[in-house]
Amino acid sequence: MTQLPSALRPLATAAALLLATAAQAHGLAVVAQHEADAVTGLARYTDQTPAAGIYVAVTPENSDTPLAEGTTGADGRFRLPVPPGGPYWAVVEGEEGHRAETLAVQLPAAAGGNGEATAEALRLVREDIARLEQQIRLRDIIGGIGYIVGIAGIAAWFAARRRG
Amino acid sequence: MHLAEGVLSAPVLAGAAALAAAGVAFGLRRLGEAQLPLAALLGAAFFVASTIHVPVGVGSVHLILNGLAGLMLGWAVFPVFFVALLLQAALFSFGGFTVLGANLLIMALPAVAAHYLLRRLVRPAEDGTPPPRRRLLVAGAACGIVGIGGAAALASLALVLSGGHLFTELIGLLVLAHLPVFVVDALISAATVALLARMLPAALAAVRA
Fold this sequence. Notes:
The complex is a heterodimer.
Chain A: H1 9-18, H2 21-24, E1 28-34, E2 38-45, E3 55-60, E4 68-71, E5 77-81, E6 88-93, E7 99-106, H3 115-134, H4 138-163
Chain B: H1 10-30, H2 36-49, E1 54-56, E2 59-61, H3 66-73, H4 77-92, H5 100-122, H6 133-161, H7 168-177, H8 179-199, H9 201-205
Antiparallel strand pairs in B: 1-2
């Protein structure tokens, strides 16, 4: 790492603190699709903030060697040109060693002249579905509390049996 | 501060899993029957607190509260956190099953440290008079600092031991990024300890030797 001039260090610290959002978010999730000549997608943390400026790569199915590498944009989106073929996997790696990968679903080539518009629409729908799937739902949290109560109940039952 | 799957090297994962299993076994022996409801309550608090992200300023922060649970439970935090982390991995894919051992150590060891460092501060005196309020606040705040600081240090250590080439520069940032968590956790823990002393002194008197 190059040394920052000392005057810049407080600024860098402040910037790092402001950018700390991503580091506190827990999981990293990625949705990707293989369009005509590129793999496009969106990387997000589980609190739904976009994973901006993190490493992304496209790999063939049975290999770890990336065909294309890049970083996500400020909105967490990426577009990496790939040769025809596939299936391809999209891999993203973020802070704290967060990593996520997904199969880049092959989008069918649209009939007519508006293939790009169709691909865009499909992309948005897939992103919405992924968002719904990743959402931490209140009922999951409540379910988790239920598990904890149940496990404590089982432990209490064992303790009572041991005593009895 | 949950480490994700596929980051740590196999020896680190295996070692952490073995240590964590030993911790859970030891913790279960130390978990008395009378402690059980409190353990479940603190386990649920830990589970919920680290699940819900609260927007603070430009970022979002969540509580961890591992220090507070450690102060109250001692070694029993191992089985308690094990359950909570298992649920988080199963329900929300936070962390993962292979890194469960490492994540458990990261959360639970600082909690046990908080217990041994701070228990003297919160126990009532021999004649039953509660400790002064200021000392309780200090103990609560120290819970947050020991708990989060220790967890960040252990997470960094696990990354260093795995020799991740990407991580050396990240580690400083990891600690820096958790400064807001530090502050919030310390404040909440301090408020909780002070409140317990006023409303339910028996809970603090029960902090085990």
